[in-house]
Amino acid sequence: MSSDTTTETDAGVASAIDPDETIEVLQDLVQIPSPFFEEEAIATYIYDWLDERGLDPEYHTVSEPAITGFEGDNVVARIEGSDPEAPTVLLNGHMDTVQHVEGWDEDPTSGRIEDGKLYGQGACDMKGGLAAILVAFEALAERDLDGDVLLTAVVDEEGPFGLGTDATIRDGVTTDCDVAIVTEPAPTITQQDIENPAIVLGARGRFLYEITVTGKAAHGSQPDMGVNAALDAARIADAISEMDLGHHEKLGSGSVCLLSIEGGGEPLSVPDQCELEIDRHVVPGETAESVLEDAQRVVDSLDLESDVDISLRETPEPDMYFQPYVTDENDPLVTPFFDSIRELFDTEPDVGYFSSIGDFNHLGGRAEIPTVIVGPDGANVHGTGEYVYVDEVVETAQLVADATSRLVE
């Protein structure tokens, strides 16, 4: 995107986006530390920001006692339209960041602006996008809308399960939503080399294999007397890395990555147990059942002496995994985004697909809501020196406001 084409545009609601306010909100958000499971302070800021503007926010409780013990709150607000038959648009953004990484040359929550870039942990992923939907939501609230606009600022996107967005689905908060806009940094983690203005219309899914290999202990000087679980685990890891994977014309191929292999370590002892964690990214058509069957077939083909137990990572609910999805770019609820980009930026958008996972998988996959990702670009996501381009934060707000107004006015 290029700010010199948008700040002067006369594009209805998009022209109501105040660049200074947008950047101020972004800087405020970045200066509030909010690693996943520690979002209370930023949730309070967002609630108060919305409340001060008369936008009637509510806290939405997120509770997961069984595995993580997490208790927290999403922030939810709704603009009610006048026509119950008109579409309802969901604006979704996560409040959390990864845990602050070591190695920053400055305070990772500085929010420093230099050369058009704002620096800080989570600046690009995704406080830039979160700031954009907040100011877009404010601008839309000043319009006479036919359809509803629902804002969800959620917890735990960067954590293990995406508890915040999952709770909005499970509790029925998003039940009436016809299309979802997620303002993740669109070009940053796609399969393709794309540039803003861009629209991301799908993502691979993900499972995590947990494999326990049980052999037989013996003295290390007599390995033939035992069954080496670590050696068999290595054979499994190698074989799974070579397994046939699904392919999709939009999302590309699946992938497998060994994350950890642990076992043994006793002096002069044949390891009798070893555990593996293996990441598996998948495409449409691959399910929990098929993924397990694939791994079992590979293990069976090795004819190992060890006993092998294969499972998927435990989740709070049986269906709570990151499902792959693809949104049709010709869907009438999606084409307004193309129209907005053409009008606001006088160009055709790039179209891409995410290689990894996020809350958009819960929305586009499990909830089957047509889901569009648009968001500001930057660099060093999840690392030191993370930054977002401030002009693209403003432009994302303009795009979200304009496309949403086309859907609900």
List the defining traits of the structure above.
six-stranded mixed beta sheet, four-stranded antiparallel beta sheet, alpha+beta, Alpha-Beta Plaits, 24% strand, 9 helices, Aminopeptidase
Structure description:
The chain is α+β, with helices and mostly antiparallel strands. It has 2 domains: 3-204 and 324-408, Aminopeptidase (3-Layer(aba) Sandwich), CATH 3.40.630; 205-312, Alpha-Beta Plaits (2-Layer Sandwich), CATH 3.30.70. 29% of the residues lie in helices and 24% in strands. It has helices at residues 19-30, 40-52, 123-141, 163-170, 229-241, 288-302, 335-345, 359-366, 390-408, and strands spanning 58-64, 70-79, 89-94, 113-114, 117-119, 149-154, 179-182, 198-203, 205-214, 247-248, 252-253, 255-263, 273-282, 307-312, 325-326, 350-354, 371-373, 378-379, 387-389. The strands form 5 sheets. Strands 1-2-6-3-7-17 form a 6-stranded mixed sheet, with helices on both faces. A 4-stranded antiparallel sheet has the order 4-5-19-18. A hairpin with a 7-residue loop joins β18 and β19 (387-389). α1 packs across α3 (123-141), α5 crosses α6 (288-302) and α7 packs across α9 (390-408). The longest helix is centred in the N-terminal third of the chain and has 19 residues, at 123-141. The radius of gyration is 23 Å and the shape is elongated. Residues 2-11 have low confidence and may be disordered.
